[in-house]
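Posting here for the record, re: magnesium ion.
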Amino acid sequence: MSNALEVRDLKASIGDLEILRGLDLTVPFGEVHALMGPNGSGKSTLSHVLMGKTDYTVSGSASIDGVDIMGMTVDERARAGLFETFQYPTNVPGVTLDDLTAEMAASNPSDNGYEERTAAASTRLNMDRFRGRAVNIGLSGGEKKRSEMYLLGVANPKIAILDEIDSGLDIDAVREVADMVESLRSSELGIVVITHYNRILKYMSADRIHVMVGGRIVKSGGAEIAEELEAKGYTEYQVAAVG
Amino acid sequence: MASRRSDAADRLAGLGMPSEREEIWRYLDLDFDPAFASAPSAPGDAGAPDSVIDGWEGTVVTIVDGFVTTPGVSTVAEVGEELTMVNDEHLFATAFTAYAPGAALIAGDLLADHVLIDVQVTSSATTFPGVHVDVASGSDATVIVRLRSTTDAPATVVPTITATVGDNARLTLTIIQDWNYQTRSIGRGVVELGRDASLTLSEIGLGAKLGRLHLDVNFLGDGSTAKVYGAYFGEESQTLDYRYFMNHIGMHTRSDMFLKGAVADDALSVFTGMIRIEKSGQKTEAFQTNRNLILSSGASAQSVPNLEILANDVKCGHGSTVGPLDKDQRYYLMSRGLTSERADRLQVRGFFEEVVEQIPDKAIAAWARERINGKYVSAQEEGRV
Ligand SMILES: Nc1ncnc2c1ncn2[C@@H]1O[C@H](COP(=O)(O)OP(=O)(O)OP(=O)(O)O)[C@@H](O)[C@H]1O
Ligand SMILES: [Mg+2]
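Prediction output follows.
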């Protein structure tokens, strides 16, 4: 059976700056993986490169459910089942969340489940009062993350990359997001949680934790890795990566 | 009265076409012959009502080729008054004074209901439609001025809209410029606000080969306020020109100007904004924002906000942007599964929505939304943007 996400030898650069330097990552369906790494190690770049943002020169391969996505445009990747919650969600003036979800449905006419999922996600995340407001404008940091999780629920992807969905959240909200991630867990979805904090990992069970340094995954393992990082930081990996 | 008219006719003989070297005409192509002498002496046949007029539930006043054709509606001259609010001395203003058959007087009982003024041009000659709105102290008025061509005639038109808003009165004025793409319109507007008077003005700029609207809002009374919104979409070789002056004379006055436009093909838009605060205008707050989307490489927008402040205790702000569609928004929307065409349409709709949603009449807002976004969708389908 194919995996939710398979990435092989992925490299990405902007001008002379190499950001991803041969990255491998496999996320099977039904699993939740955490991706940790120091600031600037390339975590957000990984998610934008997978999404097909055109700023980078890219090589390597990536597939979703066995389908190669590398030649696809951003929207084709989204429809192939990739969903990224943005670390910094973009403001869209004058466009309400309802306008956006209506356009998402219209863009994917072969999927007739949007209406039902919109209603369900709205109830689950208590989004009713935000749906008539412009996308991300004037929302607090936590509300933006909630709005991103809502759109994830509407989109129904095969692989979800949650880029720092727990940053800037209060203690209760972190727990809430962790619960949401757990509730999304299904045999039809793989999840990558990019995070700096052990906290969210305490409220959910990550099947695997990957440590990213200098544009590569330098170590993968179980929950013990997060504990170890919390105690020692990234220094040993950074030295190893440079060496 | 007659002397004002004949004086203007006398002066007209000595006036030529204004020069584009003068700041007030900068960016405009004035290389045409307005042929004032051929102004019609009677209105042409009125055009059929369209969807805006059909759906209108209030009063309709029709002006055809400058002549008021609705029975029972007087002109300013017919009631023995003079229109003295426009004092420009250039060719077009002088010609208006000399030749205009008479500005429709929209006042008193006529304003009891909402009024739609259907200003039609059928003739290719130069015509001079005029509208004067007089809102009595303490009252409320809603007026929509619909400027349209009912034929393909390449007309020149000098529409002149003036309004006085009495103490404690409110005027909601919507102007829709919807001329055919051969018509040149040198429009003028002057609004005077009394004490605690308020104005909400929305302008929708759709049509004209050359569409100029030179607007003065004079805040004469203390505490007077105005919200001025604009949405315009230029395409082909259109020039849409806005020259908006907020003149704060009274104390504690407030103006908010918010105009958004897009240009495609070889179109040009011009925004010249002025906030002028006289010495007497203490405690005034005045803001102007103009944002422009450039949708094609041949299109351009000039945006020139100005401040002239003679009082020392005021709050002012201005912002102006000219640029292409936002890449980050496109990427974000596409990452949600929207094709780039849909993403751009949604971005354009959102861009204008911030203005369109401010149009007080919801039916007119819906109509404007459809027309503006329709222009973008057509341009996209035809590969022009
Ligand atoms: N558009 C860009 N232009 C120049 N440099 C870039 C660009 N995008 C990313 N970088 C650089 O690439 C590196 C990786 O950035 P990225 O945002 O992927 O890091 P990150 O791991 O997500 O960091 P953080 O934990 O702070 O979010 C950084 O050094 C960043 O400055
Ligand atoms: Mg990041």
